[in-house]
């Protein structure tokens, strides 16, 4: 290990020691810049903040966990690559969407490198589509100040928390009951939480800089996919031509990226994403309002109260959860 790398690791360890810490589902999580981050990811975030250079052509797909990011990745990948790949030969048929649109904060992991001074040079060579769960405040400055575009997908908090609980328990990683997890969620003490602050960070940016940050809701994408897929295509600079619309390309992309279709692919039935997670865990029911089957009346009460407190003055509402 080089002297330089040792210094970087020492300074990260010093930083971790100084931060508030609690238990998360993948080990300890640390409160950094107002958000709870798993320790290994935090190290990568700090490295990215120091070294990552966003390019104007980069497109960053962002969300809190379990808000529709897998779907968004499949759609934006298909939109931006439709000239390169026909829909019958797209890599989506053989790769999980997360492999095609890598997580910024996991890229250093994937390359099997300890974050160090020069290691982010690999990232600038990576594809133009990236994704992240990093909150807006902690994104590298170059993302905020370049012309790179950001698409944020959010989902009503009730379905998002129920979805996460199923994912993490399905992977054998979560020791909490739904009730205990809901309490942690309300307290904000979950990976990349508080949920409310995460969505508000991107929501405010999308209001101030609509040409830079597009804010989507999972529920709206489900309700009117044609409208939103066309909007996505325009936002990323790949609008559909009239000819394409007449040929039904928009509908074909929607069908290709549907939960039903992706779930049935061999790669998503039996493959794994990164060393640890089964691809099939990323595809469950995809329903709006599934929370009614899982949250008790007292949990619903508690969540509604927090939601009202946190979002009431923001103009951000969710039809699936009326407070
Ligand atoms: N293609 C497609 N269309 C519609 N819905 C989809 C799709 N792919 C995944 N899903 C549903 O999204 C939920 C997983 O959320 P994320 O993809 O954001 O997970 S992750 O944060 O990227 O790990 C999870 O929601 P639940 O079914 O409610 O658990 C998935 O089923």
Give a verbal description of the structure:
With 323 residues, the chain is of the alpha/beta class. The protein has one domain: P-loop containing nucleotide triphosphate hydrolases (Rossmann fold, 3-Layer(aba) Sandwich), CATH 3.40.50.300. The chain is built from 17 helices and nine strands. It has helices at 3-18, 39-51, 69-80, 97-100, 104-110, 121-124, 141-145, 157-170, 178-187, 195-208, 218-223, 225-235, 242-247, 249-256, 259-264, 266-270, 297-311, and strands spanning 21-24, 27-32, 35-38, 59-62, 129-132, 149-154, 213-217, 272-273, 277-278. It has a four-stranded parallel beta sheet with strand order 5-4-6-7, sandwiched between helices. A three-stranded antiparallel beta sheet has the order 1-2-3. A two-stranded antiparallel ribbon has the order 8-9. A hairpin with a 3-residue loop joins strand 8 (272-273) and strand 9. Helix 2 (39-51) crosses helix 5 (104-110) and helix 9 (178-187) packs parallel to helix 17. It is globular. The model is unreliable at 109-126 (pLDDT under 50). Bound molecules: 3'-phosphate-adenosine-5'-phosphate sulfate (PPS). 3'-phosphate-adenosine-5'-phosphate sulfate is lined by residues 63, 65-71, 74, 159, 163, 166, 257-259, 262, 282-286, 290.
List the defining traits of the structure above.
EC 2.8.2.-; globular; alpha/beta; four-stranded parallel sheet; Rossmann fold; 323 residues; three-stranded antiparallel sheet
What is the topology?
Blueprint: H1 3-18, E1 21-24, E2 27-32, E3 35-38, H2 39-51, E4 59-62, H3 69-80, H4 97-100, H5 104-110, H6 121-124, E5 129-132, H7 141-145, E6 149-154, H8 157-170, H9 178-187, H10 195-208, E7 213-217, H11 218-223, H12 225-235, H13 242-247, H14 249-256, H15 259-264, H16 266-270, E8 272-273, E9 277-278, H17 297-311
Parallel strand pairs: 4-5, 4-6, 6-7
Antiparallel strand pairs: 1-2, 2-3, 8-9
Bound molecules: 3'-phosphate-adenosine-5'-phosphate sulfate.
3'-phosphate-adenosine-5'-phosphate sulfate binds at residues 63, 65-71, 74, 159, 163, 166, 257-259, 262, 282-286, 290.
């Amino acid at each position: 290990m080089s002297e330089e790398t040792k210094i970087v690791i020492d300074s990260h360890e010093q930083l971790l020691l100084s931060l508030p810490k609690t238990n998360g589902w993948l080990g300890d999580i640390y409160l950094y810049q107002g958000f709870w981050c798993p320790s290994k990811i935090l190290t990568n975030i700090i490295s990215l903040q120091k070294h990552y250079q966003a390019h104007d052509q980069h497109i960053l797909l962002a969300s809190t966990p379990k808000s529709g990011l897998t779907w968004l990745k499949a759609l934006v990948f298909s939109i931006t690559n439709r000239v390169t790949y026909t829909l019958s030969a797209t890599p989506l048929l053989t790769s999980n969407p997360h492999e095609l649109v890598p997580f910024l904060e996991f890229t250093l992991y994937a390359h099997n490198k300890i974050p160090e001074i020069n290691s982010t040079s690999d990232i600038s060579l990576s594809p133009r589509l990236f994704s992240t769960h990093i909150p807006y405040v902690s994104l590298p400055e170059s993302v905020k100040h370049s012309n790179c575009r950001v698409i944020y997908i959010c989902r009503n908090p009730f379905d998002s928390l129920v979805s996460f609980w199923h994912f993490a328990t399905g992977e054998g990683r979560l020791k909490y009951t739904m009730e205990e997890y809901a309490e942690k969620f309300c307290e904000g003490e979950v990976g990349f939480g508080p949920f409310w602050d995460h969505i508000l960070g991107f929501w405010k940016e999308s209001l101030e800089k609509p040409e830079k940050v597009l804010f989507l809701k999972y529920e709206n994408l489900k309700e009117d996919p044609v409208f939103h897929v066309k909007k996505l295509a325009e936002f990323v600079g790949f609008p559909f031509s009239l000819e394409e619309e007449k040929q039904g390309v928009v509908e074909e992309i929607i069908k290709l990226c549907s939960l039903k279709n992706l779930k049935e692919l061999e790669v998503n039935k039996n493959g794994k994403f990164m060393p640890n997670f089964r691809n099939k865990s990323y595809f469950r029911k995809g329903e709006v309002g599934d929370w009614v089957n899982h949250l008790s009346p007292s949990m619903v009460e508690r969540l509604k109260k927090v939601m009202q407190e946190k979002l009431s003055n923001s103009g951000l509402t969710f039809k699936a959860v009326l407070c």
